[in-house]
Amino acid sequence: MTSVFEAAFALLVFPGGAMALSMGLFLKGVDRRVAARLQRRVGPPLLQPLWDVLKLCAKETLIPATANEAAFLLAPVLGLAGVLVTAAVLPIGGVWSGVTGLGDLLLLLYLLPIPAMAFMVAGSASSSPYGALGFSREMVVMCAYELPLIAAFLAAGARAGGEGAQALSLAHVMAYQAAHGPFLLDPVMWPALAAMLMFIPGTLSAGLFDIPEAEPEVLEGPLLEYSGPLLAAFNLMSAVKLVVVLELVVALFWPNPLGGNWLVNLAWHVAKCLGLMLVCFTTFRVATGRLRLEQGFAVFVKYAAPLALASLALAVALR
C-alpha cells in the first residue's frame, strides 16, 4: 500500500504539484515560442506564462454583481485541484508507478472531465451571456470526445489482456507494453492512437476545436469575467491539463523507458511529451482555423469514435 507520505508527496511535489506546474508552464512557454516562429514572429520569452501568472496574482479580483459568488470563486480552485490530482496518479515509465490502488483507467475517466466541468461552472456562475454560450459549447464538445476516449481506454485494456479490474489498470497496460513493445508500433492500436491524437486538441480547445473560448465570437466565453488570482488559477489549470493529456497518451501508447536511471527516463518522458505537443497541439492550432460547434461534434462522432471502436473490436477479436 502507498503510504500517506508518498501520496502527499505525489500530490504536492512529484509527479503532481510543483513538478506538474513547472512542466506545464515550461510546455506553454515552448508552445507560444514555437507558434510565434511558425507565424514569423519573435514571440514572447520562454518564461512568459510564469510572468503572466505572477502578474495576475498581484491584481485585484473583480466579481460581477449578478454572479453566483460561491460558484464563481470555487470553479478555478476545484479545476486546478482536479488536474493536480490527475497528474499525481498518472504513472511515468521507469520513474513513477502511480499511486497504488488509484492509478487506473476508471479513475481517470472521472478525473479528466473536471477541468471542463470547472469551465462550465465558471461560465454559468458569471451571469455573462458569453459565459453561458461558452458553457454550452464546452458541454457539447466534452460529450463528443468522451466516447472515443472510453473506447480507446477499453481497447488498451483488451489488447493488454487484462481480466476484470486488471483490464482497466493503466499500470497493467504499461507492463504489457514493457514486455511486448509499445502500442505505438502495434497496428491493432493505430486506429485508437489516431482517435487519441484527435482527443488532444479537442480537450485542449486548440485549432479546429477552439470552440468554447472562441475570441471573435464569445470573447473567451467562461473566462470573460475572471481576473486576478482566479484567472491565474485557470491559467495554471490549463498548463497542468496540457501535461496530463500528453502524459496520458504517452502512458497509453509509448510508456517505455530508456533504461534504469530515473533521471534519464524522466528526461525521455518530458521529450516525448514535448514532441507530442509540438505536433498535435502547437502546429495543429497554428495551421488550422476553427470549426462550427456542430462540425466539431461531428468530427468525434463520425471519425474519432469509430476509429477507437475499431481498435477495441480488433483487440477483443485477437485476444
Per-chain topology:
Elements (H helix, E strand, L loop, with lengths): L3 H9 L4 H22 L9 H10 L11 H21 L15 H7 L2 H12 L3 H32 L9 H11 L9 H14 L11 H4 L9 H26 L8 H26 L5 H25 L2
Helix pairs in contact: 1-4, 2-11, 2-12, 3-11, 4-6, 4-11, 6-7, 7-8, 7-9, 7-13, 9-11, 9-12, 9-13, 11-12
Shape: globular
The residue ranges in which pLDDT falls below 50 over 5 or more consecutive positions are none
Please tell me how large the radius of gyration is: 19 Å
Estimate what percentage of residues fall within beta strands. under 5%
Q: Pairing-aware structural class of the strands and helices?
A: mainly alpha
- Mean pLDDT over all positions: 88
Task: Please count the beta strands (DSSP E, at least 2 residues each).
Answer: 0
Major sheet details: none
**Helical content class:** 55-70%
What is the CA–CA distance across the termini? Answer: 31 Å
Protein name: Formate hydrogenlyase subunit 4
Main location: membrane
Subcellular location: Membrane
Membrane topology: Multi-pass membrane protein
Labels describing this entry:
319 residues; mainly alpha; NADH_UbQ_OxRdtase_su1/FPO; lyase
Describe the structure.
It is a single chain. With 319 residues, the protein is an all-alpha fold. Helices cover 69% and strands 0% of the residues. It is built from 13 helices and no strands. Helix 9 (190-203) runs antiparallel to helix 13 (293-317). The two termini are 31 Å apart.
Short description:
Helices cover 69% and strands 0% of the residues. It has 319 residues and is mostly helical. It has one domain.
